[in-house]
Write a structure and sequence with these properties.
The chain has 297 residues and is an alpha/beta fold. Helices cover 33% and strands 22% of the residues. The strands form 2 sheets. Strands 1-2-3-4-5-6-7 form a 7-stranded mixed beta sheet. A 5-stranded mixed beta sheet has the order 8-9-10-11-12.
C-alpha cells in the first residue's frame, strides 16, 4: 500500500494568498470555547492545519488532531496554557498531514496516539507525515472505542470510505458536541480523497450517519470551517447530495468529463462553496471520477 501525497503538500501548492497562508508560519494558536472544558484550536493568523479540539479536565487531557508539524511547538504551548499540563491522548481523525503532522512531537511529550487501523497502515509506509516513526499510532481500533474521561463519554467511531478509508468522528455524549473531522468542510466544497480510499457516496452516507446521532442543540466542530450545528451539517450535506445528483444526471446521459465541466452543473454553489483548494471545477471532477470508479486524485 502506498500513501499518496499528504494534504499539506497539496495545500502548499493550491491555496492562493487570499486564503489561509500555509507557506507562512503562524505566530499564535487561537482557542475558541465550544462548551466548558472543550476548545477548538486553529491558527490565529494563518493556516496551522485542520481544526483541532482539546478536552481538558481533572483526569486526562485529550487532543483531537494536531495540525501541521511545523506548528507543534506553538500548539504544545497553547494546550499546556489551557489544560495546565501535557496531552495524555491524541486522537487522529484521518491520515492527512494537516491533522497528524505533530504526532511525533506530542508522543515525545508523553501522549498516546490513537487512530483507526487504516491510519496506522498508511503511516507505516510514510511515517514522516506524522513527524517520523515516533508519530505512529500505538493504539488502534477497527470500529469504535469509547473514552471515559473527565465525566465525559467520548465515543470515537469509524466512518467507512468517506473522506479517506480511515476516518473517525468523536461524539462527546455528555456535553452534546460532535467533532466531525474532515467528514465536514463547513461552507466549503469538501476534499474527498479518492486516492486514499475516499468516496463521494461514502462521504454522503457518513454525514447522514452523523446527523442521525445528534440533535438541534449539538455543537459541531468541522475539520475545516467555523463551529456549527445540526442545521449547518445538514446544509453541507444537502449541497453535496444535490451536486452529486446534478453531475450523475450528466454522467448517465453519456457526457464525458470535459463536456460536464463545460456545462458547469455546480455553478449554483460557486459563490458559497468555491475556495482555493477545492474549486468548483475540482469538486465537479471529483464527483465525475467517483461516479466512474476512478480513484485518481
Amino acid at each position: 500500500m502506498t500513501t499518496r501525497l499528504p494534504i499539506l503538500a497539496i495545500l502548499l501548492a493550491a491555496l492562493p494568498a487570499s486564503v489561509a497562508l500555509a507557506q507562512q508560519p503562524v505566530s499564535a494558536i487561537k482557542a475558541t470555547e465550544v462548551v466548558p472544558g472543550i476548545h477548538m484550536l486553529e491558527g490565529a493568523d494563518g493556516f496551522a492545519g485542520g481544526n483541532m479540539t482539546l478536552l481538558s479536565g481533572d483526569e486526562h487531557v485529550v487532543l483531537i488532531d494536531d495540525g501541521l508539524g511545523a506548528m507543534a511547538g506553538l500548539l504544545l504551548e497553547k494546550t499546556r496554557e489551557i489544560a495546565g499540563r501535557n496531552i495524555d491522548f491524541v486522537i487522529n481523525t484521518h491520515v492527512h498531514g494537516d491533522h497528524v503532522g505533530s504526532n511525533a512531537h506530542f508522543a515525545e511529550n508523553g501522549a498516546v496516539i490513537v487512530a483507526h487501523d487504516n491510519i496506522r497502515k498508511r503511516l507505516l509506509d510514510n511515517p514522516e507525515f506524522a513527524g517520523g516513526e515516533g508519530g505512529l499510532p500505538v493504539l488502534t481500533f477497527s470500529d469504535a472505542v469509547t473514552f471515559h474521561i473527565n465525566g465525559n463519554e467520548a465515543y470515537v467511531f469509524h466512518l467507512e470510505h468517506a473522506h479517506t478509508d480511515g476516518d473517525a468522528a468523536i461524539l462527546f455524549k455528555n456535553v452534546n458536541v460532535l467533532v466531525a473531522g474532515d467528514i465536514q468542510f463547513h461552507g466549503l466544497f469538501p476534499f474527498i480523497d479518492l486516492a486514499n480510499g475516499g468516496n463521494v457516496a461514502g462521504y454522503i452516507a457518513a454525514q447522514r450517519e452523523m446527523l442521525a446521532m445528534i440533535d438541534d442543540e449539538t455543537r459541531v466542530v468541522p475539520g475545516h470551517g467555523a463551529i456549527t450545528d445540526k442545521a449547518g451539517l445538514r446544509s453541507d450535506l444537502d449541497m453535496l447530495v444535490d451536486a452529486h445528483a446534478r453531475v450523475k444526471a450528466l454522467v448517465d446521459a453519456g457526457q464525458n468529463e470535459e463536456q460536464i465541466l463545460a456545462a458547469n452543473p455546480l455553478s449554483i454553489y460557486h459563490d458559497d462553496y468555491n475556495w482555493g483548494f477545492i474549486t468548483t471545477e475540482r469538486m465537479t471532477r471529483t464527483l465525475i471520477r467517483s461516479l466512474n470508479g476512478d480513484q485518481q486524485p
